[in-house]
Amino acid sequence: MSFMPSDFHPILLVLGHAEELLVLANALGKFAEQGGQLVLNDEGVHSTDTRVTLQQSDPDAGEKLGLWQTSPRSMDLTWRLPLAYARIFSDEVANLANAGEPAGSTTLECDRLGEIRVKVSIGEWEENYLTDGFR
């Protein structure tokens, strides 16, 4: 998992094999059940440069949903989600991981202007891209 900042199209890119994507799906599922706050990195979602904290949010309370930087130029991100969104996202990632297809992707977003979209991908990259030496 790595945040790719951009003025035009910032994304959180999550690349992995099925078992690695299931770690993300399980973390989102755990958050959907328990709520509160959860750090994806602490749940086993690997990153060498990005930290993502899930935070339970209520869309009816006017809270700013979606994935956002905690401060300018930061690689720490806060993902404010209603629990129902977390469950939907968990299912989407699990479906991608379990589809048995050689390649595919899904985009997770809350449809908020300016939010950072999460691109989850399987098999759409070469193996050496996953090493820090390549980037």
Overall pLDDT level = 93
Secondary-structure element pattern, one letter each: EEHEEEEHEE
Please compute the radius of gyration using only Cα atoms: 14 Å
Biggest sheet: strand arrangement: 1-2-8-7
Approximate helicity band = 10-25%
What is the structure about, briefly put?
The protein is of the alpha/beta class. It has helices at about 20-35, 85-100, and strands spanning about 1-5, 10-15, 35-40, 50-55, 65-70, 75-80, 105-110, 115-120.
Structure explained in plain terms:
The protein has 135 residues and is an alpha/beta fold. The protein is 24% helix and 28% strand. It is built from 2 helices and 8 strands, in the order E-E-H-E-E-E-E-H-E-E. It has a 4-stranded mixed sheet, with helices on one face. A hairpin with a 6-residue loop joins strand 5 (66-69) and strand 6. The model has no long low-confidence stretch (mean pLDDT 93).
What are the SSEs and their pairings?
Blueprint: E1 2-4, E2 11-15, H1 18-34, E3 37-39, E4 51-56, E5 66-69, E6 76-81, H2 83-98, E7 104-108, E8 117-122
Parallel strand pairs: 2-8, 4-6
Antiparallel strand pairs: 1-2, 3-4, 5-6, 7-8
Helix pairs in contact: 1-2
